[in-house]
Design a protein that fits this description.
Layout: H1 3-15, H2 17-22, H3 24-37, H4 46-49, E1 64-71, E2 81-88, H5 89-92, H6 96-107, E3 126-129, E4 132-135, E5 148-152, E6 159-161, E7 164-165, H7 168-176, H8 203-207, H9 226-230, H10 237-248, H11 256-263, H12 277-281, H13 288-301, H14 303-318
Parallel strand pairs: 1-5
Antiparallel strand pairs: 1-2, 3-4, 3-5, 6-7
Helix pairs in contact: 7-10, 10-13, 11-14
Protein name: Succinate dehydrogenase [ubiquinone] iron-sulfur subunit, mitochondrial
Enzyme class: oxidoreductase
Family: Belongs to the succinate dehydrogenase/fumarate reductase iron-sulfur protein family.
Length: about 325
């Protein structure tokens, strides 16, 4: 065996180890082709070279999974009812959302639910799964040992149809906290020549936004909060307040005091009674309760300036 053969063997060990372990036959076929291409004599036995990969028979999983889904269509004025769908596990797929898609496509085309990214990014498929809010696309069917999955729309929301809640109030509350950068006449956006420049931020200031900006507005936290159930028209809820703190913490924003003044309200902020349902429900592992506590601390830290701003605002309105 010459040096060229040894080099090829070394390359095969480095690059084809995985193939060798998984598919013995494919390894030898690849090796034989490489030897032939290099113009070398193949020192392997023929039986090794063309060894076939044994076929593997996969036994079909016939276990059943039961979906118990709340069906309700306000247009038809029918009472809400629970409908059961029984699927084989291999038909249902790995995630709850896969099962819903199968039911929609193959069993009941009238079933209503939201979906989009299927990867826990958009928050569209948020629903109540076996009593806990979560994302259908991230919830594994295999996590339910009894084979029963009960699905409801997010709690305390008007129902458009089946598992589709009306998110109008939720998004209006989000809009009310002004989720965008506000700067003093845009001056920080201009250099001395009046040309627009970037809003730069230090690494340290950027880190302050971690565990805040990742919110996907799925509403799992807000709709799991009893305070939000009792006061949905007044209490902003964990999601909106988490986002409010995200902009309060942004070093590029000039509107911190105005944001705090808006939140310094008995109902908007202080309806939070630290139940912590929001933190346990968040599918992204965020901590809205901690953000709310930080907002309260910021208000106390800046209370004199906030009160002064409030009095000025009252004077303007009175005139």
């Amino acid at each position: 065996m010459n040096m060229k053969t040894l080099n090829i063997e070394k390359w095969m060990k480095v690059n084809c180890t995985g193939s060798f372990n998984l598919h013995n036959g494919l390894y030898f076929k690849s090796y034989a082709r490489l030897i032939s291409k290099a113009g070398l004599s193949n020192h392997l036995h023929t039986s090794q070279e063309i060894k076939k990969v044994p076929s593997i028979s996969v036994k079909e999983d016939t276990r059943l999974i039961t979906f118990r889904i709340l069906k309700y269509n306000p247009i038809n004025k029918d009472l809400p009812r629970i409908v059961e769908y029984k699927l084989k596990i291999n038909e249902a797929g790995p995630m709850v959302l896969n099962g819903l898609i199968h039911i929609k496509n193959k069993v009941d085309s009238t079933l209503g639910f939201r979906k989009s990214c299927r990867e826990g990014i958009c928050g569209s498929c948020a629903m109540n799964i076996n009593g806990k809010n979560g994302l259908a696309c991230l919830t594994k069917i295999s996590s339910f040992s009894d084979g029963i999955i009960e699905l409801r729309p997010l709690p305390n929301q008007y129902i458009i149809k089946d598992l589709i809640p009306d998110m109008t109030n939720f998004y209006n509350q989000y809009k009310s906290i002004k989720p965008w950068l506000i700067q003093s006449n845009g001056k920080h956006n201009l250099d001395i020549t009046g040309k627009k420049i970037e809003n730069l931020q230090s690494i340290e200031d950027r880190k302050k936004l971690d565990s805040l900006y990742e919110c996907i507005l799925c509403a799992c936290c807000s709709t799991s909060c009893p305070s939000y159930w009792w006061n949905p028209d007044y209490y902003l809820g964990p999601a909106a307040l988490l986002q409010a703190y995200r902009w309060i913490s942004d070093s590029r924003d000039d509107n911190k005091l105005q944001r705090l003044m808006y939140l310094n309200d008995t109902m908007k902020l202080y309806r939070c009674h630290e139940i912590f349902n929001c933190t346990s429900a968040c599918p992204k592992g965020l901590n809205p309760a901690n953000a709310i506590s930080n907002i309260k601390a910021e208000i106390q830290k800046n209370i004199e300036e906030i009160q002064k701003l409030e009095s000025e605002d009252c004077d303007i309105n009175s005139n």
